[in-house]
Write a structure and sequence with these properties.
The protein has 138 residues and is of the alpha/beta class. It has one domain (2-136): 3-Layer(aba) Sandwich (Rossmann fold). Helix content is 49%, strand content 21%. It has helices spanning 11-27, 46-56, 75-94, 108-114, 124-136, and strands spanning 2-7, 35-40, 61-69, 98-105. Helix 1 links the parallel strand 1 (2-7) and strand 2 (35-40). The longest helix has 20 residues, at 75-94.
């Protein structure tokens, strides 16, 4: 089974990332009962959700989706660092792959480019879904 943890802080970006990931599952005939979506408020909350999912031992791969956009304060750096380090710690402690497709960008245009739905090969959610299938099949 697959779990997708999706931050909804920037909802249009997150929805497009999630659409991309689900598109991969649909293209590969992965039944909807084989994956679960968990929404969290922001990127800072992604590691906790991943940890709770990892503890259940029900999932073979977790996919983390979200977006952090740089602002004018140090908040961006702290959230990015906490998200990356939290997920790395969970992967190593629980020995579960977590596909990390949390966008960390300078502005909304960069986020929109990486979450676009015109060319799925550029959508990081789609790429994350493909990576999840690849690592699952190893």
């Amino acid at each position: 089974m697959f779990a997708i943890v999706c931050s909804n802080f920037y909802p249009q970006i997150s929805k497009n990332l999630l659409k991309g990931c689900i598109k991969v599952f649909e293209e590969n005939n992965i039944e909807q009962k084989s994956w679960k979506v968990i929404e969290v408020p922001g990127a800072f909350e992604i590691p906790l959700a991943c940890q709770k999912l990892a503890k259940t031992k029900k999932y073979k791969v977790i996919i983390a989706l979200g977006c952090v956009i740089k602002g004018q304060t140090g908040h961006y750096e702290m959230v990015c660092k906490a998200c990356v380090e939290g997920i790395m710690k969970i992967m190593l402690n629980f020995e579960i792959p977590i596909i990390f497709e949390v966008l960390m960008v300078n502005d909304i245009l960069h986020a929109e480019e990486r979450a676009q739905t015109r060319d799925w090969s550029k959508n990081k959610g789609y790429i994350g879904g493909k990576m999840a299938l690849e690592i699952h099949n190893l």
